[in-house]
Each structure stands twice: as C-alpha cells, then as structure tokens.
Amino acid sequence: MFSGNFHHVVDPKGRVSVPAAFRDLIQSSGNSAVFLTPHPVNPPRVLDAYPVTAWHELKDKLLKLNRFDPTVLKLENLLVGSAYRCDIDNQGRILIPAKLREWASLSKDIVFVGATDRFRVYDRSAWEQAWDDAAATFKANPELLSRLNL
Known about the structure:
- This protein is α+β, with helices and mostly antiparallel strands.
- The chain is built from six helices and eight strands; from the N terminus they run ββαββααββαββαα.
- It has one domain (5-148): Transcriptional regulator MraZ domain (Chemotaxis protein chec), CATH 3.40.1550.
- It has helices at 20-28, 52-63, 70-79, 98-103, 124-140, 143-148, and strands at residues 5-9, 15-17, 33-38, 47-51, 84-87, 93-95, 109-115, 118-123.
- The model has no long low-confidence stretch (mean pLDDT 94).
C-alpha cells in the first residue's frame, strides 16, 4: 500500500526521484513504470500515479461502463486521454511530462502522497492546502469519519 508523503525536487528537465518506498512497491509487481494522469476532482490540481497493475484495473472498470454516456466519455478523455506512461530510469527517476507539470502547476518542490493502490503528485503549496483543508473538514465534522465506517 502506498502511504506517507515525501518531499522531492524536480530537476530542470522535469525528472524527479520516486520515493524508495514507492519505487519498491512498483518494482515488486515486476514493473518499472507508472501512468501519470490528472486527478478528475480538483482544486487543487494534482496528478494520480497508477502502477501498471492498478492502471489495468482502472481500465477494466472503465471498459464495463457505457461508452456512450457523456460523463464516461469525459472521464475517459481526462484520465486516459491525458495519461502518460512514465518509466522509472536507472537512477529511480521518472520524467513528468511538461503538459502534466503545467496542468498541475508543479514547481520545483513537489510532494508524493500515498493513496492506497496509487500515489499522488502535488505541488508543495497545493499539498499544504489540501492537507489543511482535509484536517479542517474532519475537525469541523467529526461525524464524517463515523459515516465512512472506518
């Protein structure tokens, strides 16, 4: 399971080291790549990074949906049409495509955040905003946790 958050720096070419714990999980499945795609719910804008196996599970779910439903079409356009396969190089880095860096407003300082079967890539300031928002939501509405039955 992908968990925790890790602060990293994007180099001028758009490459960034994947946290070792995340890299180990990805490579333990026999793969050395992730699919980066815009997260469909924002702000803040954030990228989802799916290991190959999780990406195929998502694809299988999408294929079961009504392909002529306008909402499904929009979701496919956003998730699949904007996705990039990013291979992990020998130094443990991925290249975040310029289009995705621009879409997510990624600066030099980014944060990798675990999200169970995948992880997210935030600009540092966007992560701080998202974390503060989540903490405030549950502090103001603790009953939300009981409704989730965790």
